[in-house]
Write a structure and sequence with these properties.
Layout lengths: L2 E5 L5 H15 L6 H10 L5 H6 L2 E6 L2 E9 L25 E8 L8 H15 L4 E7 L3 H6 L3 E9 L5 E10 L1
Parallel strand pairs: 4-5
Antiparallel strand pairs: 1-2, 2-3, 3-4, 5-7, 6-7
């Protein structure tokens, strides 16, 4: 399998939305209930166009197919796509605050083949080059094992209440780089 990583473009947003939906529906089974999956897709998961505009969102192609996406951010938002945002996403101070690892999704056909690690390595390197010395993220339950294997530690466990009252457990995790 030939992998290619590159910065995402706004023209890819429809394809990214499809990949995100496929990833969440398939890879969250066994971790979240059907109600949690559907509610998360409705209110949280989706493309964050700010990451694309900032040039901090990557895609991985496997043999020419969109296999995964994920990014890092120099902004305050910890998780969620455009659906969840309510105001300006202010910049972080690289000297005192951790960069964010954001919106990682892998197509189910390419799960557990190193796509997530490839994306994470690219994000860590880019955040370090931007002057950050730490990373923070909000891990979904299916994503937590990858982040733990890559050196992240749990800061706290959180239950996010979505607008329809559904509770979704996540883990806020961090790592020095």
């Amino acid at each position: 399998m030939s992998l290619h990583i590159r910065t995402s473009t706004s023209e890819e947003i429809p394809a990214l939305e499809r990949l995100i939906e496929q990833s969440v529906r398939a890879l969250s089974v066994g971790f979240y209930s059907p109600q949690q999956i559907e509610s998360s897709l409705k209110y949280v998961f989706g493309v964050d166009t700010q990451l694309i505009e900032d040039g901090t969102y990557f895609v991985v192609e496997a043999d020419g197919q969109l296999a995964g996406c994920g990014g890092w951010s120099k902004r305050r938002t910890l998780y969620g796509g455009d659906k969840l945002k309510t105001g300006e996403d202010n910049l972080l101070d690289a000297k005192t605050e951790p960069s964010r690892i954001r919106a990682f999704f892998v197509h189910p056909n390419f799960a557990r083949r190193g796509i997530g690690r490839l994306l994470l390595d690219a994000c860590e390197q880019a955040a370090r080059q931007a002057g950050f010395s730490a990373l923070e993220l909000a891990a979904t339950m299916p994503g937590e094992p990858l982040y733990a294997a890559c050196g992240f530690h749990i800061i706290e466990r959180i239950e996010v209440e979505l607008p329809d009252g559904v509770l979704v457990p996540i883990a806020r995790m961090g790592k020095a780089i």
